[in-house]
Request: fold
Amino acid sequence: MTVFILLACLGGVLVGLSRQLNGRLSISTTPLIASFWNHAIGFAVLTCLGLFVGGLLPAGAAEAPWYAYLGGPIGVVFVAAGSWVIARIGAVNSALLIIGGQMVTGVAFDYISAVPASFWANAAGIVLIVGGMMISRRRKAGGSQ
Reply:
């Protein structure tokens, strides 16, 4: 279990590093160019890894429904938007925005899918996320005066 926890932590660090690099590159160029290089390098690395490890084209990929492939275009928009946002509000605030959005969307999907959950725990979590973001913004605005 420890190995999987360490891999998850490493994944988080690499995602954070990727966002920082994309944000810095988008300041030097444009968010679309940063997104292009992010995807070009990711495609090359994952293709090499898929060829080396195997499973580049998994069985049943051709039978997948069309909407299973919407992750690619959505990812392009997400990376380009993330590159644009990081340059404007900073890495910490954009990370809070992304995490908050994922948490709220996850709760919304749970309710849509009728997954049993505690309403009060979910509501408290959303209030804490939004409250933390508001406090963060207020401190930043108050500290700059």
Summary: The mean pLDDT is 82.
